[in-house]
Amino acid sequence: MEPLTGGRSTVAEDREVGVPGDGAAGAGGVPPSVRPDLVALTGYHSPQVDVEVRLNTNESPLPPPAAWLDAFRSELSGLDFNRYPDRAATGLRAALAEAHGVDQAQVFCANGSNEVLQCLLLAYGGPGRSAALFEPTYTMHAQIARTTGTAVAVGRRTDEFLLDLEEVSRVLAATAPVVTFLCSPNNPTGRIEPPRTVEAVIERAPGLVVIDEAYAQFARSTSLDLVRGGTPGADRTVVVRTFSKTWSMAGVRLGYLVGSPEVVAACELVALPYHLDAIKQLAGRLALRYVDEMELRVAEVTEERGRIAAGLAQLPVDTWPSDANFILFRPQDRPAGEVWSELVARSVLVRDCSSWPGLTGCLRVTVGLPGENDRFLDALNESLR
Ligand code: PMP
Fold first, then answer.
1. Any idea which fold 53-62+292-384 has?
2. 137 lines ligand 1 (CB under 6 A)
3. Contact, 212 vs 138, CB < 8 A?
């Protein structure tokens, strides 16, 4: 192709030679259709309804500490807004590394843990490769795999929503996935996998094991020890965390992984330059100074979770033990959609999971403030009466 001269744009040049795909050839043509493999995807979103009590997206009901906001405000004015941010997010990664007792080279940060997952799949997935997951689980694992052209190998959990190692072995042997996803505590079931199960999956997995720990601080155990040097399989194990839940910073969009330096380097290959803005780096770095306050919030939410579980136990619903900031429940005698609508009519919004794989009849409630949880329990009681 001749070099472009005389003000002709690259786009004009592409049009002249034609872009593969329907409708794209020729000036004045119609816009191209999207990639055929994306057409069946519906995207992931929770319908937002105008209600007084919003318990559908697993956020923290409590704001970050006032002292954090003061520190954030005062340091914000010192940012060089005219300059690109520190591309390596050095301060934030150093603070996270210290918090977890790992090396800074083992930490990668991105815009929410969803973007961390996307970077992992951009780096390791793609055409001809597959990612394994066990339904029901976090819907975005499959969604991000598909958008990155990665095939999805689906296994099933037990009726109690736990992993069954025979099923895990079957799926891994049949598909040899490059990435195996575990979500523990699992969204939307709240179940945590016993540490020995996680270790057994790492033993069996042929590639990376990505343990999504978005809710880990609410749980009895974490897999972070498994990424530390010296542990068998540590170089293939990745733990993904978020600031969206326990750190009360869902609006900031910040997540990270702890893994081997090689995995971090792979994610850096696919992340866009300066993808992590300076404001977010500051917010996250400062948040880590307030671990005690974060733990207090976690304790409050965990106590409320116990109160909701006790309330649900009095009602005609099935529930499962939760290690997260939400509880899955299944009305025994009423379709989930009807109960969801009756809760909305009482200005309480929960998540309707009933159309998700393996979750027929199920709804999920996020733990809110005490008054919100009372509103939920009262509304559910009335709806089921
Ligand atoms: N993983 C799990 C299991 C989640 O439930 C969520 C939030 N719904 C995420 C990752 C993404 O969190 P974020 O992108 O806000 O960090």
1. Aspartate Aminotransferase, domain 1 (3.90.1150)
2. no
3. yes
Do the two domains 53-62+292-384 and 66-289 of this chain adopt the same fold? no
5, with CB counted inside 10 A (0-12, 13-18, 19+), is: exposed
Domain ranges of the chain: 53-62+292-384, 66-289
Centre of ligand 1 to C-alpha 288, Å, is 19
| CA–CA dist 242, 250 (Å, integer) | 9
> How many angstroms does the Cα of residue 60 sit away from the middle of ligand 1?
12
The DSSP bridge partners found for residue 183 are: 212
Condensed to tens digits (0 to 9), the pLDDT of residues 222-277 reads 999 999 877 889 999 999 999 999 999 999 999 999 999 999 999 999 999 999 99
- For 88, the 3-state DSSP assignment is coil
Q: What is the pLDDT of residue 325?
A: 98
pTM of this structure: 0.91
Question: Does position 55 have pLDDT exceeding 80, yes or no?
Answer: yes
Query: How many other C-beta atoms are found inside a 10 Å radius of the C-beta of residue 380?
Result: 25
383 lines ligand 1 (CB under 6 A): no
154 has which bridge partners? 133
Separation of alpha carbons 252 and 69, rounded Å: 13
Query: What CA–CA distances, in Å, run from 124 to 168, 171, 227, 359?
Result: 20, 19, 18, 30
For residue 332, with 0-12 CB atoms within 10 Å meaning exposed, 13-18 middle and 19 or more buried, which class applies? exposed
Contacts of 196 (CB under 8 A, 6+ apart): none
Tokens of 25: 């050839």
Q: Is the CB of 183 under 6 A from ligand 1?
A: yes
Q: Which CATH code is given to the segment(s) 66-289?
A: 3.40.640.10
> Which of 45, 57, 114 to probe ligand 1 with, by most ligand atoms within 8 A of CB?
114
Atom number, ligand 1, closest to the C-alpha of residue 57: 8
Six token digits for residue 211: 């343990």
Cβ neighbours of residue 336 under 8 Å, at least 6 residues apart? 330, 352, 353, 354, 360, 361, 362, 363
Is any atom of ligand 1 closer than 6 Å to the C-beta of 247?
A: no
